Amino acid sequence: MPSYRIVVLPGDGIGPEVISQAVRVLETISTSSPEISLQLESHDFGGCAIDKHGDPLPPSTLQACQEADAILMGSIGGPKWGVDAKIRPEAGLLKLRKALGLYANIRPANFASDSLLDASPIKPELVKGVDMIVIRELIGGLYFGARQELGASAEQPDTAWDTMIYSIPEVQRITRVAARIALAANPPLEIHSIDKANVLAASRLWRKVVTETLTNEFPQLKFDHHLVDSAAMLIVANPRKLNGVILTENLFGDILSDQSSVIPGSLGLLPSASLAGAPSAPSTPDFKPTSGIYEPIHGSAPDIAGQGIANPIGTILSAAMLLRYSFGLEKPAKAIEDAVRKVLDTGVRTKDLGGEAGSEEIGDLIVKEL
Amino acid sequence: MPSYRIVVLPGDGIGPEVISQAVRVLETISTSSPEISLQLESHDFGGCAIDKHGDPLPPSTLQACQEADAILMGSIGGPKWGVDAKIRPEAGLLKLRKALGLYANIRPANFASDSLLDASPIKPELVKGVDMIVIRELIGGLYFGARQELGASAEQPDTAWDTMIYSIPEVQRITRVAARIALAANPPLEIHSIDKANVLAASRLWRKVVTETLTNEFPQLKFDHHLVDSAAMLIVANPRKLNGVILTENLFGDILSDQSSVIPGSLGLLPSASLAGAPSAPSTPDFKPTSGIYEPIHGSAPDIAGQGIANPIGTILSAAMLLRYSFGLEKPAKAIEDAVRKVLDTGVRTKDLGGEAGSEEIGDLIVKEL
Ligand SMILES: CC(C)[C@H](C(=O)O)[C@@H](O)C(=O)O
Ligand SMILES: CC(C)[C@H](C(=O)O)[C@@H](O)C(=O)O
């Protein structure tokens, strides 16, 4: 019987509350499926780790993450460790992404249930059927290129700069992940690559490598290119046009994935995965990461922390992604997603969606469905 | 009697069609106001200039623009001069912006008439009252920083990079423009500065300089800071929260201004200004640019060019901005805006808004109102 080690990073604010419901769901899967054994262990990460250890990513947490089969995370940060603080939770997150080599961030934006169409800020006739997966390069570009802070250089005392840099292999590997995920669907998804090739050299490299990789290695896939400014318009004006896979670099992905996550009406519903490891041979549609962090896309929402009213669904769906991507366990992953949809179809809603159900109640109902 | 020289750059696609209606409006103002004399002259720019002169910005056009009091532009580009072409219209645009020092791009996103609320892709209750002005730094950052194309360096043969660089004076001057525009409204507008200060050094400089400039020079103004990813969410989920001035750097401004321009339902309705010249003393609310390009925000729409159905309102409202900002002629500027609103209130619509009126008909009606 395969046994998997999952490191759990509850984090700050509502993190521990949403995590505890997802942990219940994973434990239900583990005890009810004789062929699956999941070992869960929690570690300090983020603001709470700054408070306890003076470091958002203590060495013991990093080591546990490196040894884990997969990582489930809540949310980190809060005003206590705000912009002016010397040590910030975000630094730990960026360091962890880089240390684990998590270059592929995967964020679906779709409706867990059609009963949620009305929750969208965009008109229902425009968003019905929206089904996008943003695949964002996560450890390159402006985030990790060389930079110079204001005041750091005697020759340029009044400037600051960052570098958007990409190499051919970096773009190849994220393109292959996008292709693998496109091929896993039936029929395969269309790929929309986003760049600013009319201005940026890094985007011209991006466009060239995406085109060559897809044309040579995945001739069966359809793809096109959009400029980031017009993609930002399309996501609001006609989002179905970008159905399929949205493939883009780190900063554009940060912006566009957040923008598209507003479509389903509540950030509380959406999961994400950040993966490491080269996909195997280009012809096999499967993609087995060597490491992965799974987390809801929402923040730590300190204003509602401790009240038991946070929506745990984004975290629960992240646990489903974990089973699917890191362990290849499609059946229980699908079972969790179906259970979530069924519960939402009954009309139960947490506060973010105008309802009154608490985190625990949603957890109960989903566990019962399973 | 002050006489003003306006250079007109009709450009490509629907450019000449929308320009000709705006020119009629300006000529009406000029002939009906004894105290205003406008001299208009047309020059080649964009794709048509590539075809005729092999250069999107021929020296004669550049010189005319440098000598003009203001510039009115249509739209440039088209598939004929696409991504793979050696000489591209966009290069001319970037060169013109830089040559004229047009560092301040100003793009309002609001409803020219409440009768258009239903045209928005976002629900009317969320967009009613949306009134944002995006002020984008236009000749700095990633657009004009040092870059290296793929293949250009023997040491780094497989990489390409661009630099996002800002200096203190660059951020000061655009902040002062934003403050001037905020102060010109009664009550003054709130300023929302957008950056990615949790990751980028250039954004940390941006945030520091914006904060210091506004605090020291404009203590009467209210302002806050948003991260670009969360601003991209807000513009869709709750756009009124960003009412007022959105102040941001070049690339973020490119993305966010396009994104917010979708709110009013048709790109055909929205004007823009790109301005040069330091505002005078910080205490005077007026801002008199030394040079300015005024243009609709839509593209050249080659698919509908030559049919006389393009919406000329964005260009006509750009002409109003020209009178206001470059010449300080508030009265005729306001008159044009009022005429546009009245015409829209009667329900007449061009095709982009689901109607049947042609460009000429809209021009007629607005001229008649004047
Ligand atoms: C916290 C921040 C550094 C991070 C990012 O920009 O990557 C966040 O916005 C995200 O998208 O995970
Ligand atoms: C054409 C392109 C270079 C330009 C830009 O990115 O600045 C355009 O998108 C704009 O916003 O005016």
TrEMBL record, chains A, B:
It catalyses: (2R,3S)-3-isopropylmalate + NAD(+) = 4-methyl-2-oxopentanoate + CO2 + NADH. Pathway: Amino-acid biosynthesis; L-leucine biosynthesis; L-leucine from 3-methyl-2-oxobutanoate: step 3/4. GO terms for biological process: L-leucine biosynthetic process. Its EC number is 1.1.1.85. Gene3D superfamilies: Isopropylmalate Dehydrogenase (3.40.718.10). SMART domains: Iso_dh. GO terms for molecular function: 3-isopropylmalate dehydrogenase activity; magnesium ion binding; NAD binding. Catalyzes the oxidation of 3-carboxy-2-hydroxy-4-methylpentanoate (3-isopropylmalate) to 3-carboxy-4-methyl-2-oxopentanoate. The product decarboxylates to 4-methyl-2 oxopentanoate. Belongs to the isocitrate and isopropylmalate dehydrogenases family. This is 3-isopropylmalate dehydrogenase. It comes from Mycena chlorophos. The lineage of its organism: Eukaryota, Fungi, Dikarya, Basidiomycota, Agaricomycotina.
